[in-house]
């Protein structure tokens, strides 16, 4: 816990490690947050293991507010970890997380080796969540720069970030949703994304004209 600075915990996505969040980490520090990384095994270990560890980590950064920012699969895990209200308060920002289920993941399961690539996270990525009814305000940043291989393995819809369709990121119960000109991996190095993350963590809303 860092005195007087809001705590933020970053979660990487599938097939990634914490260093993938390095640029976002630096930019959020420049915005005045105390930023921490959360590493987990996205393929070899069951999601329940990561969720239990994440809840423990959030508690360790309390008792003040602890915000969570998750990219892709990391955003889904963040919501599952924070469904109960027994954790320190805070907001969640998801970056390109297929909260409604991933068409790319479903497509991969029908290809040779797909199950192995998705590992223990397969079911969670395929089906997503029904809605968000937790106490935390949740914001979603989706991308619509179609650069990536996801469209070649599954149906992503008219607008997508190369891996996740914009409609796959819309979940009932979200406090805010905005769409930026970025690809799925490009979110991690985008200055616009970092600024919108900071805005939502402070205010519980985005300040783009595309936000509802």
TrEMBL record:
One of its GO terms (molecular function) is hydrolase activity. SUPFAM superfamilies: alpha/beta-Hydrolases. Keywords: Hydrolase. Pfam families: Abhydrolase_6. The keyword Hydrolase applies. InterPro entries: AB_hydrolase_1, AB_hydrolase_fold. The keyword Hydrolase applies. This is Alpha/beta hydrolase.
């Amino acid at each position: 816990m860092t005195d007087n600075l809001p705590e933020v915990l970053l979660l990487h996505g599938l097939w990634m490690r914490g260093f993938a969040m390095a640029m976002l980490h630096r930019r959020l520090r420049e915005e005045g947050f105390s930023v921490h990384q959360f590493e987990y095994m996205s393929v070899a270990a069951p999601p329940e293991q990561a969720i239990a560890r994440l809840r423990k980590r959030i508690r360790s950064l309390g008792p003040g507010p602890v915000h969570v920012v998750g990219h892709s699969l990391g955003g889904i895990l963040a919501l599952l970890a924070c469904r109960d209200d027994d954790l320190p308060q805070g907001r969640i920002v998801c970056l390109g997380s297929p909260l409604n289920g991933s068409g790319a993941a479903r497509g991969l399961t029908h290809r040779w080796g797909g199950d192995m690539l998705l590992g223990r996270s397969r079911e969670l990525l395929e089906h997503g969540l029904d809605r968000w009814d937790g106490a935390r305000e949740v914001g979603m940043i989706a991308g619509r720069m179609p650069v990536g291989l996801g469209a070649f393995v599954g149906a992503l819809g008219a607008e997508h970030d190369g891996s996740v369709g914009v409609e796959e990121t819309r979940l009932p119960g979200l406090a805010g949703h905005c769409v930026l000109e970025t690809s799925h991996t490009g979110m991690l190095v985008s200055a616009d994304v970092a600024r919108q993350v900071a805005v939502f963590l402070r205010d519980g809303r985005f300040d783009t004209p595309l936000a509802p």
